[in-house]
Amino acid sequence: MAKRSRINLPVEVKWDTPKGYFVSRIANLEAFFDYFGIMVYITDNNSSMKMKQKSLIRKSIIAWAIILSLVISAAGARYVQAASLTALSNTMTNQTISAASDHTIKFTTPTGVAAGQTITVTFPSGFGLSTLVAADFNLLSGVSTLTLAGTCTGTTWGVAVASQVITFTSCTGTIAATTVITVKIGVVAGGTHQITNNSSAASYSITIGGTFGDTGTITIQIVTNSVVAVSATVPQSLTFSISTNSIGFGTLSTSAVTYANAGGTGSSSSVVAHTLAAGTNAVSGYTITVQGATLTSGSNTIAAIGSTAAASAAGTAQFGLNATVSGGIGTVSSPYNGANYAYAATSSTSSAVGSASGSSATSTYSVTYICNIAAQTPAGSYTASLTYIGTANF
Q1: 150 and 205 share a domain?
Q2: Spatial separation of the C-alpha atoms in residues 215 and 108, rounded to whole Å
Q3: Are residues 384 and 251 both part of a single domain?
C-alpha cells in the first residue's frame, strides 16, 4: 500500500481579515497542491481542517522545491547561473620556450557581460606578463573594438595586469549574450610588449573567468622550438640575345638617307635592322652597352654623330642609330631614345643603349641605323664591328 505524505501549513488567521481574501488564498493553495496530489492541512492555532489527501512522498518533495523557488522570487532575490564558454581558441605567434609571443584569444559568452562586471584571463605561472601596459591590449565585442584604459570610466573599459591575471573591467559598458569576445595581446594589438613563454616545453591552460560568470579554459602547447628554418637558393638569371649579326646599308648616296637592313642591301625608308632582347632577376636590373668604331675604310671614316642626337641629313656625312623598346621594364638610354640619331661609342669606349632598374621580364629593343655621306666622302668599302654587351646588376 502506497504511503501518503502529510504537510501541515500553519496559518495565522486574523478574524478581521475579509472573508473573501482568506477564502481566495485557501482556494489558490488547494488548486496548487491538488495538481501535485498533496495531502495538505491548514491549522489555525490548535484546530485543523482536512482539505485533501492523496499524495506520494516524492511528489511532496517536488512541491516544496517549487515553493522554495517562489519564496526566493517573492523576496526579490536574483539568481544567475554561470555558463561554460564556447568556441575557445588562442592563436600565438611563437610557441618556442622563453620566446616573446602575441596572443589572440577568442571565446563566445552564453551569458554576456553586464555593467560593472569583469572578465579575467589568467596565465599559468612561468609566463611573463610584467611588461604589458594598456596599449598592448585590444578587446573586441563581435567586430567592434572597445575603448581601453588603465581604469574604466563610462563606456571605456579598464584593463590591468596583476601577476598572472589580466582583468578587463566594465563601468557602464555591456556585451550581449552569445557574443564572440576577442582579446588581442602584443604587437597584434598595436602594442610593443608581448608575453614571454614558459621556459619549459609542456601543455598549459589559460583560464577565462571573472564576475560576468561564464568560465572556460584554453590549452596551449609550448615546444622547444616552434620555428622551422627553411632555405632555398634562387639562381641568378640573365637573358640577352641579338636577332641578327649582320646588317648593311648597301650603296650610299649623297642625295638620300640610307637605312641599314638585315639583308645588307640598305633601304630608303626607316626599318629596324635588328633587335636586342634582355631580361634578368637581378635586383638592380641590367645595362646594355655598345662599343666599336664608326664605319671605316682604311684610314677613312664616316663621321659618327656623337653623344648629341641629330636629325638625319642627306649630303652630310653621318653614322648613327636610335631604338625603341617593348615589354618588361627596360628603357632606351639617352641619346638613343628619341626620333633623332646618335652614336657616342668608339673603339675603346662603350655607350649605354638600354637598361632596366630592377628585376625585369624580357624587354625587346628595336634598333634603327642611318648613314649619310657628303660629296667629298672618299670612295671605298666601309665596315664597322659593333659589340653589344648585356650586363646584369645583381
Answers
A1: yes
A2: 10
A3: yes
If residue 61 lies in a helix (H) or strand (E), which one and from where to where?
A: helix 57-74
Helix or strand run (H / E) with residue 23: helix 19-36
Write out pLDDT tens, residues 125-163: 999 999 999 999 999 999 999 999 999 999 999 999 999
Report the domain count for the chain: 3
Exposure letters 194-210 (e unless 16+ CB within 10 A, then b)? bbbbbeeeeebebebbb
- Whether 232 is in a domain gets the answer no
The pLDDT of 206-223, averaged and rounded, is 97
Q: Which residue has the higher pLDDT, 168 or 34?
A: 168
Render 127-193 in DSSP notation, one character per residue: -B-TT--GGGEEEEETTEEEPEESS-BTTBEEEEEETTEEEEE-SS--B-TTEEEEEEESGGGT-S-
pLDDT at 167 exceeding the cut of 90: yes
At 230 the pLDDT is 95
- Is the same domain home to 29 and 139? no
Q: Give the containing element (helix H, strand E) for 342.
A: strand 341-343
249 and 364, same domain (yes or no): yes
The three-point CA angle 377-379-384 to 5° equals 85
Contacts 24+ apart (CB under 8 A), 79-82: 80/111, 80/213, 81/213, 82/111, 82/213, 82/214, 82/215
Which comes out higher in pLDDT, residue 239 or 73?
239
**Sign of the dihedral defined by the CA atoms of residues 21, 22, 23, 24, in that order:** positive
